[in-house]
Write a structure and sequence with these properties.
Layout lengths: L1 H10 L24 H7 L4 E7 L8 E7 L5 E7 L7 E8 L5 H11 L1 H9 L3 E5 L8 H4 L5 E3 L8 E3 L5 H12 L5 E11 L1 H10 L6 E5 L17 E2 L2 E2 L4 H6 L3 H9 L5 E6 L5 H13 L4 E6 L21 H18 L2
Parallel strand pairs: 4-5, 4-8, 8-9, 9-12, 12-13
Antiparallel strand pairs: 1-2, 2-3, 3-5, 6-7, 10-11
Length: 340
């Protein structure tokens, strides 16, 4: 039993032959301890592969991995790669809000195996991601966080200027992927649906990566859109299909401050009949107004997140005509920005 427990702890990165975390500071040429941003940047992103397993519905296995975040907890991802040493471009894939840990990662991967297999065949590392759940409204009052030198104990640990939010986990994942020897660190992109689409907008305003594909991004917080009692609703669902209604209920000044920090090329997919289509389109319009590298595509499709092509119940791959088109649109976009 003791041997089994030790094996499990080693696999989770909780038992280690040396210190699990590197010191929070680094000693300079004259022996001074680095502090502030310098020390934070000296701490490398890292993760632990706890298992490599076959994925249901595919012959291409996946590395079950936990990635260190800014506040030194671990978030789950599942990494699948082409054969060979690379370096390959990489794409993260997320859906909705963070919840259910590795279980959600595994289930989403199993539902997307056929689509992911085709992305891998095109030469991409594909990474299904998850992250902590959202703290409602915290983003709108937060500033991009920093790691701070310890002013309390005098030790070498780092303090935090504010709570770690879910989009920062995506940044940590991207930074981790950039350390992998088989990943081209200049060619890491991200795609996400709904709240995960908003996470790409938030992450790109704080960290630049190769490209983002933001699918029906629920950018309420990113654009500071009114979601309170006075927001337009039908039953319990907010109604922002009309871009002018979204514009009237958004805070352009705050949104543009965030948009101005973006240097990542972004493709935004809307959905014509979605109740938040006005928010999707307003994000594109204000990014365009700010002179950012942004593209827009929208289709009339009945399924939320239609760009992610889920396996059929029998495991087969049967994209409809619109899905075939969107697949080529976003893959051509990634080819343009991630392949040199």
């Amino acid at each position: 039993m003791r041997s089994l427990l030790k094996t499990i702890l080693i696999g989770l990165g909780l038992l280690f032959a040396g210190p699990l975390f590197l010191p929070s500071g680094k000693v300079g040429a004259r022996g001074q301890l680095a502090t502030g941003r310098e020390a934070a940047e000296a701490i490398p992103s890292h993760g632990y592969v706890v298992a490599t397993k076959r994925i249901k519905g595919s012959d291409i296995p996946g590395d079950y991995t936990f990635v260190l975040t800014r506040d030194e907890i671990y978030v789950p991802i599942l990494v699948r790669k082409p054969k060979g040493n690379g370096p390959f471009p990489a794409i993260t894939m997320g859906w909705g809000e963070g919840r259910e840990g590795m279980k959600k990662v595994e289930q989403l991967t199993e539902r997307l195996t056929q689509m992911q297999d085709r992305m891998i065949a095109r030469g991409y590392v594909v990474v299904t991601v998850n992250y902590r759940n959202e703290i409602p409204y915290a983003y709108e009052s937060a500033k991009p966080p920093q790691n701070l030198p310890d002013s309390i104990s005098g030790d070498r640990r780092m303090l935090k200027s504010g709570p770690t939010l879910d989009h920062e986990d995506l940044i940590a994942i991207i930074k981790y992927l950039q350390t992998l020897p088989y990943v081209d660190k200049k060619a890491v992109g991200a795609m996400g649906v709904s709240h995960s689409g908003e996470m790409i907008m938030k992450a790109s305003s704080e960290y630049t990566f190769a490209a983002g594909v933001s699918i029906e991004p629920a950018d309420h917080e990113f654009l500071t859109v009114n979601t309170g009692p006075t927001a337009p609703r039908k039953d319990n669902e907010i109604q922002y299909n009309d871009i002018e209604v979204a514009r009237k209920n958004a805070n352009k000044q705050e949104a543009m401050e965030r948009i101005q920090r973006i240097h990542t090329p972004i493709l935004i997919f809307g959905r014509d009949t979605d109740h938040q289509q006005g928010i999707f389109k307003l994000t594109y319009e204000w990014m365009k107004e700010a002179g950012k590298d942004v593209q827009w595509a929208s289709f009339n499709h009945p399924v939320h997140g239609y760009v992610f092509i889920m396996n059929q119940p029998d495991g087969s791959y049967q994209p409809d005509e619109i899905q075939q088109k969107t697949f080529e649109i976003f893959m051509d976009y990634f080819d343009k920005h991630l392949k040199h």
